[in-house]
Amino acid sequence: MNSIIEFPWQQETIIIHSQHILHSFQHWLGYSLLDVSGSSAEIAQRLFEAPFILASHGTQANPIFNYGNRKALEQWEMSWEQFTSIPSRKTAEAVVQEERDRLLAEAANKGFSYFSGVRITSTGKRFQIDDGILWNLFDDQHQYCGQAAVYSKCKFI
Prior knowledge:
Elements: H1 3-6, H2 12-29, H3 40-48, E1 53-57, E2 65-68, H4 70-76, H5 80-83, H6 97-110, E3 112-120, E4 126-138, E5 144-151, E6 153-156
Antiparallel strand pairs: 1-2, 1-5, 3-4, 4-5, 4-6
Protein backbone atom coordinates (compact mmCIF):
# COMPACT_ATOMS: atom_id res chain seq x y z
CA MET A 1 0.00 0.00 0.00
CA ASN A 2 1.48 3.38 -0.84
CA SER A 3 1.93 5.93 1.95
CA ILE A 4 -0.47 8.49 0.50
CA ILE A 5 -3.37 6.06 0.84
CA GLU A 6 -2.11 4.47 4.05
CA PHE A 7 -1.60 7.88 5.66
CA PRO A 8 -4.10 10.18 3.94
CA TRP A 9 -3.74 12.77 6.70
CA GLN A 10 -0.28 13.57 5.27
CA GLN A 11 -1.74 14.91 2.00
CA GLU A 12 -1.94 18.70 1.83
CA THR A 13 -5.57 18.60 0.62
CA ILE A 14 -6.56 16.41 3.59
CA ILE A 15 -4.68 18.64 6.04
CA ILE A 16 -6.67 21.61 4.71
CA HIS A 17 -9.93 19.63 4.70
CA SER A 18 -9.29 18.58 8.31
CA GLN A 19 -9.10 22.27 9.22
CA HIS A 20 -12.42 22.90 7.45
CA ILE A 21 -14.01 20.02 9.37
CA LEU A 22 -12.77 21.28 12.72
CA HIS A 23 -13.44 24.99 12.14
CA SER A 24 -16.95 24.27 10.85
CA PHE A 25 -17.74 22.03 13.83
CA GLN A 26 -16.55 24.75 16.22
CA HIS A 27 -18.62 27.34 14.36
CA TRP A 28 -21.89 25.39 14.42
CA LEU A 29 -21.63 23.54 17.72
CA GLY A 30 -19.68 26.06 19.81
CA TYR A 31 -17.04 23.64 21.06
CA SER A 32 -14.06 21.82 19.64
CA LEU A 33 -14.26 18.27 18.29
CA LEU A 34 -10.74 17.58 19.56
CA ASP A 35 -7.55 19.24 20.80
CA VAL A 36 -6.40 21.64 18.09
CA SER A 37 -2.97 22.46 19.48
CA GLY A 38 0.07 21.71 17.33
CA SER A 39 0.83 21.98 13.64
CA SER A 40 -1.86 21.51 10.98
CA ALA A 41 -0.31 18.16 10.05
CA GLU A 42 -0.35 16.99 13.69
CA ILE A 43 -3.98 18.02 14.03
CA ALA A 44 -4.88 16.21 10.78
CA GLN A 45 -3.20 13.06 12.09
CA ARG A 46 -5.00 13.39 15.44
CA LEU A 47 -8.33 13.72 13.61
CA PHE A 48 -7.61 10.68 11.45
CA GLU A 49 -6.65 8.61 14.53
CA ALA A 50 -9.49 9.94 16.75
CA PRO A 51 -11.53 7.50 18.86
CA PHE A 52 -14.80 8.49 17.14
CA ILE A 53 -16.15 7.82 13.64
CA LEU A 54 -15.94 10.80 11.29
CA ALA A 55 -16.83 11.06 7.62
CA SER A 56 -17.55 13.86 5.16
CA HIS A 57 -18.85 14.24 1.63
CA GLY A 58 -18.64 16.92 -1.01
CA THR A 59 -21.24 19.04 -2.78
CA GLN A 60 -21.97 16.90 -5.84
CA ALA A 61 -25.61 16.22 -6.75
CA ASN A 62 -24.92 12.66 -5.55
CA PRO A 63 -22.28 13.49 -2.89
CA ILE A 64 -19.12 11.36 -2.81
CA PHE A 65 -17.27 10.74 0.44
CA ASN A 66 -14.10 12.83 0.56
CA TYR A 67 -12.95 11.92 4.06
CA GLY A 68 -13.20 9.06 6.52
CA ASN A 69 -10.99 8.72 9.56
CA ARG A 70 -9.50 5.36 10.50
CA LYS A 71 -12.51 4.42 12.66
CA ALA A 72 -14.88 5.21 9.76
CA LEU A 73 -12.84 3.10 7.35
CA GLU A 74 -12.92 0.23 9.86
CA GLN A 75 -16.67 0.67 10.51
CA TRP A 76 -17.57 0.56 6.82
CA GLU A 77 -14.91 -2.10 6.06
CA MET A 78 -13.23 -0.12 3.28
CA SER A 79 -9.85 1.24 2.32
CA TRP A 80 -9.35 5.00 1.93
CA GLU A 81 -9.40 4.57 -1.83
CA GLN A 82 -12.71 2.65 -1.77
CA PHE A 83 -14.36 4.97 0.75
CA THR A 84 -13.48 8.18 -1.09
CA SER A 85 -14.91 6.90 -4.35
CA ILE A 86 -18.47 6.00 -3.31
CA PRO A 87 -21.58 8.14 -2.95
CA SER A 88 -22.41 8.66 0.72
CA ARG A 89 -26.00 7.52 0.07
CA LYS A 90 -24.63 4.00 -0.52
CA THR A 91 -24.06 3.67 3.24
CA ALA A 92 -27.81 3.78 3.94
CA GLU A 93 -30.27 1.11 2.87
CA ALA A 94 -32.96 2.13 0.37
CA VAL A 95 -35.67 1.93 3.05
CA VAL A 96 -34.01 4.71 5.11
CA GLN A 97 -33.02 6.98 2.22
CA GLU A 98 -36.00 9.31 2.76
CA GLU A 99 -35.03 9.88 6.41
CA ARG A 100 -31.38 10.37 5.43
CA ASP A 101 -32.41 12.93 2.79
CA ARG A 102 -34.54 14.77 5.37
CA LEU A 103 -31.61 14.86 7.79
CA LEU A 104 -29.22 16.23 5.15
CA ALA A 105 -31.72 18.94 4.22
CA GLU A 106 -32.28 19.88 7.87
CA ALA A 107 -28.54 20.25 8.45
CA ALA A 108 -28.19 22.23 5.22
CA ASN A 109 -30.86 24.68 6.44
CA LYS A 110 -29.77 25.23 10.04
CA GLY A 111 -26.08 24.32 9.89
CA PHE A 112 -26.17 21.11 11.91
CA SER A 113 -28.46 18.35 13.12
CA TYR A 114 -28.42 15.51 15.61
CA PHE A 115 -29.26 12.09 14.26
CA SER A 116 -29.69 8.38 14.87
CA GLY A 117 -30.23 5.76 12.22
CA VAL A 118 -29.29 2.51 10.57
CA ARG A 119 -26.43 2.34 8.08
CA ILE A 120 -24.81 -0.52 6.19
CA THR A 121 -21.18 -1.56 5.68
CA SER A 122 -19.61 -2.47 2.35
CA THR A 123 -20.15 -6.14 3.18
CA GLY A 124 -23.83 -5.69 4.06
CA LYS A 125 -23.61 -5.58 7.86
CA ARG A 126 -26.21 -3.25 9.38
CA PHE A 127 -25.49 -1.03 12.36
CA GLN A 128 -27.44 1.45 14.48
CA ILE A 129 -25.95 4.90 15.06
CA ASP A 130 -27.06 6.85 18.14
CA ASP A 131 -26.33 10.47 19.09
CA GLY A 132 -24.64 11.42 15.82
CA ILE A 133 -24.01 14.99 14.72
CA LEU A 134 -24.17 16.13 11.09
CA TRP A 135 -22.93 19.61 10.16
CA ASN A 136 -22.26 21.82 7.16
CA LEU A 137 -18.68 22.43 6.12
CA PHE A 138 -17.33 25.70 4.83
CA ASP A 139 -13.94 26.57 3.40
CA ASP A 140 -11.55 29.43 4.12
CA GLN A 141 -13.72 31.79 2.05
CA HIS A 142 -16.80 30.71 4.04
CA GLN A 143 -18.24 28.90 1.02
CA TYR A 144 -20.29 25.76 1.59
CA CYS A 145 -18.12 22.73 0.72
CA GLY A 146 -20.03 19.70 2.01
CA GLN A 147 -21.20 18.02 5.18
CA ALA A 148 -19.55 15.93 7.87
CA ALA A 149 -20.89 13.50 10.45
CA VAL A 150 -19.44 12.22 13.69
CA TYR A 151 -20.58 9.59 16.16
CA SER A 152 -19.16 7.18 18.67
CA LYS A 153 -22.24 5.25 19.72
CA CYS A 154 -23.08 2.45 17.32
CA LYS A 155 -23.82 -1.25 17.43
CA PHE A 156 -24.22 -3.95 14.81
CA ILE A 157 -27.76 -5.29 14.50
